[in-house]
Design goal:
14 helices; elongated; alpha+beta
Length: about 400
């Protein structure tokens, strides 16, 4: 059977089996964050358009090409959120969270939206999990966040993980480096891809992200930000690296690592997986010490990361299993109310219990129990005492219903 209606390009349906996988990721993350003192936060799916123009950066691809923006009936310019950090910083400022004990440690999970070319593991509507620590400039914060994301990937059993680690320095140092890089790119402008030439003034560091062979050859000889860190930035980065080393996490020092958002400062990082092919990124982030002030709050250092749920599930490479059923209660017509009460009792005891909702015959109900993958079935028939059937072996025996929860309990 097919429908004349389909999900819009770049979106997808999450079926029950898919939720089982997502629930495992969520449960692992919630446990890891709870142990580390991070509280759950949720922001609206759409925000004021200007939040992202100011917070993410006017020169970024996200703001220039990828945002889903609209004007509502009241004439307000709104945008479906393309990323999570700017909305969380907006909430931090709006709710006066700078008055709380610092740093404020938050984690989030939800849908995000970007108008980009759909491909494996990348969609126009996608889901991310993330963590933010707002209110401390200590390198301990950077290290903790890197370690938490590494712990999540290891807890889920994702193989072939690589960590790329770099630093973008402080705004003043980066401004001087930006001028130097712009001058270098103009000297070799003829060798650059057209899109890179167009961005020399707006965002020259994005040239490091280019896949164009000519541009990549130019960037191999370009000066890097790591070579231009001032003493304070270099000391901060060295401290982060030392703590990551002590945690036993291997990494590749990457002087060309550039995040696609303008708010990053100092530490930046990205996790990749061999299981994802050319588009290997699983998630990453870094420090954004100026964003709170930029969005109207007090000068406040901060650090955070985000990871794509669909990317994580692709890296897990697990078959989605339908949710299992612990017990199916089959009943003859005159026993249905009794079956209904028994199912409620079993569910209250923590069992996945089902009963027939389509008025099938007893034989049809047993076939339904088999289709659902039930491990056991209770048969209620006025002609005989209650029976318990092992759906794997087919063995059947009499069951005392007063002990049903005890015998079938988890």
């Amino acid at each position: 059977m097919s429908s004349r209606f389909q999900a819009p390009r770049g979106t997808f349906d999450i079926l029950p089996a898919g939720w089982e996988q997502r629930a495992r990721v969520y449960a692992a993350a919630a446990q890891i964050f709870e142990r580390a003192g991070y509280g759950r936060i949720e922001t609206p799916a759409f925000e004021d358009r200007e939040l992202f123009a100011r917070g993410v950066g006017q020169s970024t691809d996200i703001v220039q090409k990828e945002m889903f923006s609209f004007t509502d009936q009241g004439g307000r310019g709104l945008t479906l959120r393309p990323e999570g950090t700017a909305p969380i910083v907006r909430a931090y400022v709006e709710h006066g969270m700078h008055r709380l004990a610092q740093p404020v440690k938050l984690w989030h999970w939800g849908p995000y939206f970007r108008h980009e070319r759909p491909q494996s593991g990348r969609f126009r509507e996608f889901n991310q999990i993330g963590a933010e620590a707002i209110g401390s400039d200590s390198p301990l914060v950077d290290a903790e966040l890197i370690i938490l994301l590494d712990e999540l990937f290891r807890e889920l059993g994702i193989a072939g993980i690589r960590l790329r680690l770099g630093s973008l320095g402080s705004p003043a140092t980066r401004a001087a480096y930006r001028d130097e890089l712009q001058a270098y790119l103009r000297q070799r402008e003829a060798e650059l891809a057209p899109t890179v030439r167009e961005r020399i003034d707006l965002n020259p560091m994005r040239a490091f992200d280019s896949d164009d062979p000519g541009t990549r050859a130019v960037m191999e000889e370009a000066p890097t930000m790591l070579e231009r860190l001032d003493d304070a930035d270099a000391e901060h980065f060295a401290a982060v690296r030392a703590m990551v080393d002590r945690a036993g996490i291997s990494y590749q020092l990457d002087p060309t690592l550039v995040r696609g958002l303008d708010y990053y400062t100092r530490t930046v990082f990205e996790f990749e997986s061999d299981r994802l092919g050319a588009q290997a990124a699983l998630g990453g982030g870094g420090r954004y010490d100026g964003l709170v002030e930029q969005l109207g709050g007090p000068s406040t250092p901060a650090c955070g990361w985000a990871a794509g749920i669909e990317r994580i599930l692709l890296a897990l490479d697990e078959e989605a299993d339908e949710p299992g059923v612990d017990v199916f209660v089959a009943a003859s017509e005159d026993q249905r109310e009794r079956a209904f009460a028994l199912v409620r009792e079993l569910r209250r005891a923590g069992l996945r219990a089902e009963l027939d909702l389509a008025e099938r015959s007893l034989k049809g109900q047993m076939k339904q129990a088999d289709r659902l993958g039930a491990r056991a079935a209770i048969v209620l028939d006025e002609q005989q005492p209650a029976q318990l059937r092992d759906m794997t072996s087919g063995e059947q025996r009499e069951l005392d219903l007063a002990r049903a929860v005890e015998e079938l309990g988890p």
